[in-house]
Amino acid sequence: MTVTAIEPKRKGLSALYIDGEFALKLDTEILLSHRIDVGIEIDDDKLKEVIDASNIKRAKDKAMWLISYRDHAQKELVDKVAKDYGRDAAQKAVDRLVELGLINDERYAFRYASDLLNLKHLSKNGAVRKLIEKGIDKDLAYDTVESIECDVTENIKAVIDKKYARNLSDEKGRRRCVNALLRLGYSYSDIKSVLSLYTDTDEYYY
Length: 206
Known about the structure:
Blueprint lengths: L2 E6 L4 E6 L2 E7 H6 L10 H26 L4 H12 L1 H13 L5 H14 L5 H10 L4 H9 L5 H13 L6 H13 L4 H8 L11
Antiparallel strand pairs: 1-2, 2-3
């Protein structure tokens, strides 16, 4: 097979033509570093090598772009990048970022859990679930959440004061409040205990 044309395209890509026909778009820097130029002969093994290298570089660029906006858990980042460049390239790219210290699940878990507990006022059970959904290992999620101090009563009060306090005299309002707190992962006993500070009734319905 002969490379018959290379046409620069947008976003650092070049269109590669083989034997007079368009083959695919590859990363321009990878084409240069692998000395792919018009007129050279290229076999299937070499072409695969260049394609794999291009995918890994593009995957790394995409991962870097994503973490420039916010921190990510390792699995979460792999899943996002894999949609465009395949799981193998995504995993290799993210593994490299882990080696460089740009991705760290322990650091991410602590920051995210702290926000969930102290800003969003989730329960510890709710925070663990959220971390696992992001791809954090179950044991790491549990240990991280347990290491963070938070006051269950104050967190529940914060949720109630922000959205539900004015409607606690109404049965429907109490039910909505209880259900919302249950979804955040709080136990019914803790919810009932805190609600007793707001109303005399013990009819909370859930």
